[in-house]
Design the sequence.
């Protein structure tokens, strides 16, 4: 029953270039500035209050993530106007991109949902996905959920990334065993 591919740990992250509200081209999976890793958050969209809260909470972890050399970006399948409206409830300084297509969602292996009503949203949307892409463009950490209630706890995630990024720990990509 292989109806949906999941992007496995250790795989090359499929880079997608989307737009931000400023018109900037943002490439998911390509760290910006001095960062050599990137944390990519795929969120459901403006209709999801849990996404709004999660993104706002993530903002508080930026100093620690940046100290680790980890860039932070987020994207959804929302339209430009939906993201513009959503910004009134977001207090984030990291870039948000819009227009993630269903084909791109499938390539990332996130779960995709159909809106329950027109009041929810007007398009299929990605359920939460979180990817940490290392300096080789490889998926170091992946978390994919089929609903908005299950996401990595941010303190645990950032503490774990601090452990992984510490060169004394020699921590490999986990979950890559393919044997019998």
Sequence:
């Amino acid at each position: 029953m292989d109806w949906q591919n999941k992007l496995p740990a250790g795989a090359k992250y499929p880079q997608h270039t989307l737009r931000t509200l400023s018109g900037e081209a943002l490439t998911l999976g390509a760290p910006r500035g001095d960062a050599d890793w990137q944390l990519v958050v795929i969120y459901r969209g403006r209709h999801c209050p849990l996404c709004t809260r999660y993104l706002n909470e993530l903002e508080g972890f930026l100093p620690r993530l940046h100290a680790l050399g980890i860039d932070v970006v987020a994207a959804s399948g929302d339209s430009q106007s939906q993201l513009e409206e959503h910004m009134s409830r977001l207090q984030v300084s990291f870039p948000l991109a819009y227009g993630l297509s269903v084909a791109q969602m499938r390539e990332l292996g996130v779960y995709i949902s159909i809106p329950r009503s027109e009041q929810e949203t007007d398009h299929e949307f990605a359920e939460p996905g979180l990817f940490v892409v290392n300096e080789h463009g490889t998926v170091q950490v992946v978390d994919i959920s089929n609903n908005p209630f299950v996401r990595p706890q941010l303190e645990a995630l950032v503490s774990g990334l601090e452990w992984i990024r510490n060169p004394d720990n020699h921590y490999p990509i986990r979950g890559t065993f393919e044997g019998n």
Notes: The chain is about 25% helix and 20% strand. Strands lie at 16-20, 25-28, 37-42, 70-75, 96-98, 112-113, 125-126, 129-133, 139-144. The CA atoms of residues 45 and 135 lie 28 Å apart.
